[in-house]
Amino acid sequence: MAQRNVFNYPDEMLNKKSREVTAFDDKLWVLLDDMHETLTHHEGVGIAAVQLGILRRVIVIDLDEGDGAIELINPEIVQAKGNQRELEGCLSCPGLWGYVERPEYVKIRYMNRYGKEQFQEAADLLAIVFCHEIDHLNGIMFPDIADEMVDEEHAEAEMEKSPKRRKKMRRKKKKMRR
Ligand code: CO
Average model confidence (pLDDT) for the chain? Predict the structure, then answer.
């Protein structure tokens, strides 16, 4: 396993569309393992392969809520409901924070690392992370769809206010970076 370098906004790499994974082999598993390592190193909650310069539809999410990490290959949103507007950051956008509107609930279909089809429902923060990461696979960066960008001081104050995020920050001082 190795930690890999992260491409930073506004590098044009991040606007490229990722391709479907067709081979569920060693090469994919090494990529997944490196994504886990890079995500942990940066104390983020999610990472897409494109952020490491690999244009494949692969995502690793780790909300640190005791459920372990989630690996999503070729994910698609099959159902979305409601609305929420929350503060987002990104591993590829150090120091940038902004408000983005997302569905309150999503259901996704994806493959696991062995190519088996899976479904998962998500609400609240996990729904945001699914949408944010799937956007990465389509070359969409949150600062380009945020309705308001805020400075770091505002972002930290906001995170202190949210009980969900405060709990997380206390536990690991992990920022809400995706
Ligand atoms: Co991101």
Answer: 92
Residue 151 lies in a domain: yes
Contact call for residues 175 and 158 (beta carbons, < 8 A):
no
C-alpha of residue 116 to centroid of ligand 1, in Å: 25
Lowest mean pLDDT segment, chosen from 2-6, 79-83, 153-157, 161-165: 161-165
Q: Which residues of 14-46 are buried (b: 16+ CB within 10 A; e: fewer)?
A: beeebeebeeeeeebeebbebbbebbbebebbb
Q: How far does the centroid of ligand 1 lie from the alpha carbon of residue 104, in Å?
A: 18
Asked if residue 123 has pLDDT above 90, the reply is: yes
- Write the CATH number for 149: 3.90.45.10
Q: Which residues constitute the domain of residue 113?
A: 12-177
Per-residue pLDDT tens digits for 21-61 = 999 999 999 999 999 999 999 989 999 999 999 999 999 99
Domain count, the chain: 1
Whole-number Å distance between alpha carbons of 53 and 161: 35
